[in-house]
Amino acid sequence: MQNFNFINFKTKLKNYEHFVELTSMFDSQYGTKTCVSKTTLKNIGIAVKRDNNWVNTNISFRIKNIFANSNIIYSSGNNHTSLIDINASADLVNDIRNNVAIKHPICLFLFNRNRWFIHPGNMRLLFLNQYFEDVDVIVTNYSKYKLEKKINFKLYQPNDLSIDSVTGLDFFTYWSNSDARSSFKRRVGRKKYLIKEIEDAASVKILKDPKIYNPPRVYELKNNKVYMDNIPFLELINNNWYFCIM
Questions:
Q1: Of 63, 103, 134, 215, which is most buried by a Cβ count within 10 Å?
Q2: 8 A C-beta contact, residue 211 and residue 83
């Protein structure tokens, strides 16, 4: 049977069965193994070596970059990567406050013994100590190591667990050494992998361009709190950053 052409492939997933069909073909052609699960951000963090220190270091780094020159900045004049992440986290804080659950899957990739890559989902892992509901997870193994020995939560074959949150999302591929994800280049080195990813491309496009907001969003660092449009969403307590989700 002729192989399916997954090079620079993109399609919108009709339903979970569509995801299973494409994933099965991809795994068969490229020697990967894909599993799915439902688990907590905390469990994902344990598996990929993300802890409270990682959370605090990442948030601190972004806050320092964003407010390096001023304690007040506007989305209309800033497209810094750190602002993109902080802006997305502010939206997630607002969702959690309004009882809107994390709905899209977090994608994990294993390339060798301890080399993980997370996308999409890295920003959501910043909530691992404050969000305790199960989230959908898709794990793709590019390595020779058994996932069951690397993961601390139960994994399922795609046919054995339904993750309906993939419906309507974009299934697409790109080479690991391309500019689509420059961080992949740093993570996997010179070896070339065809990456399959599932995300809501339209939402990601908006989050990556804070300049689109009209009126512009206003971010302010004041009294150990970070505000978006005068509403606090981050607070520094005992030298640790916490999201204001209560």
A1: 63
A2: no
Nearest 5°: the CA angle 177, 33, 128 is 80
Question: How far, CA to CA in Å, does 223 sit from each of 27, 70, 72, 214, 226?
Answer: 51, 14, 13, 27, 8
**Nearest by Cα to 20 from 9, 31, 28:** 28
Buried b (16+ CB within 10 A) or exposed e, 22-48: bbeebbeebebbbbbbbbbbbbbbbbb
> Within 10 A of 191 (CB to CB), how many other CB atoms are there?
10
CA distance 50 to 44: 8
Question: What's the one-letter identity of residue 38?
Answer: K
Looking at 97-148, which runs of residues are DSSP E strands? 106-112, 115-118, 135-141
Domain boundaries defined on the chain: 10-69+98-209
Asked if residue 195 lies in contact with residue 181, where contact means CB atoms within 8 angstroms, the answer is yes
Confidence tier at 146 by pLDDT (50, 70, 90): confident
Which pLDDT belongs to residue 1?
Answer: 47
